[in-house]
Amino acid sequence: MNTAEIIKIEKGRPGEAFARCVEVIKAGGVIAYPTDTFYGLGADPRNARAVSKVFEIKGRGADQPILLLLHDRTDVTAWTFVVTPSAERMMARFWPGPLTLVFTARPDILPQLTGKTGTIGLRVPGNEVTRALLGQVGNALTGTSANRSGSSSPRTPAEVMGELGDRIDLVLDGGVSAADMPSTVVDVTAEPPRIIRMGAVDVSAELS
């Protein structure tokens, strides 16, 4: 039985670890990596086989969409044609940070990612290490939590390994995650926006 490779981010020298992550992702593999909330499962969202692996690893239903993490807010237009005024305000106010915004998905997005809902969740994470990794990848990454569906979301590499160590290819060890709450999720497909899940950031003032 294979066990996931673990790579630690060396202080001041993250390049080697990032390069190995990029190699695995470009080969269609799945990594676990630190985000601004919990550890996430990262795969190339343009690779149908890699996305299918994420679903298989998690035991996730096909009707459950998977959010994406972006390097920068300018990447949003690669995934949606429609950015409402409220979405613009919320991106300016809360990104980078633990706020996932749900947009109308572009028609060329893999239907697995949207759960066939026609929408896609996007976030620019507040963790600088995560954004640096995304910059090296040069693409968005899937950002669903690195656990089996229904299990607790992991905050450490050890927790990831304990549950998924024989299912994934690599764990990027970034230490303990800074947050113990999931991202807040807001539907911005229409005006006014609608809170789907309240989490690590309080956006209620923006919607009142």
Question: Which characteristics define this entry?
Answer:
208 residues; alpha/beta; DHBP synthase; six-stranded mixed beta sheet; four-stranded mixed beta sheet; 10 strands; 28% helix; globular
What features would you describe in this structure?
The protein is of the alpha/beta class. The chain has a single domain (5-207), classed as DHBP synthase. Helices cover 28% and strands 19% of the residues. It has seven helices and ten strands. The strands form two sheets. A six-stranded mixed beta sheet has the order 7-4-6-5-9-10, covered by helices on one side. The protein has a four-stranded mixed beta sheet with strand order 1-8-2-3, sandwiched between helices. Strand 9 (184-187) and strand 10 (194-197) form a beta hairpin. The model has no long low-confidence stretch (mean pLDDT 94).
What is the CATH topology descriptor?
Answer: DHBP synthase
Tally of helical runs: 7
Overall 3D shape: globular
- Taken as a percent bin, the fraction of beta residues is 15-25%
CATH-defined superfamily:
DHBP synthase
Biggest pleated-sheet summary: 6 strands, mixed
- Residue stretches low in confidence (pLDDT < 50, at least 5 long) are none
SSE layout:
Layout (H helix, E strand, L loop, with lengths): L4 E4 L6 H12 L4 E4 L4 E4 L5 H11 L9 E2 L15 H10 L4 E6 L6 H4 L4 E5 L4 H10 L3 E2 L14 H8 L5 E4 L10 E4 L6 E4 L6 H4 L1
Parallel strand pairs: 1-8, 2-8, 4-6, 5-9
Antiparallel strand pairs: 2-3, 4-7, 5-6, 9-10
Helix pairs in contact: 1-5
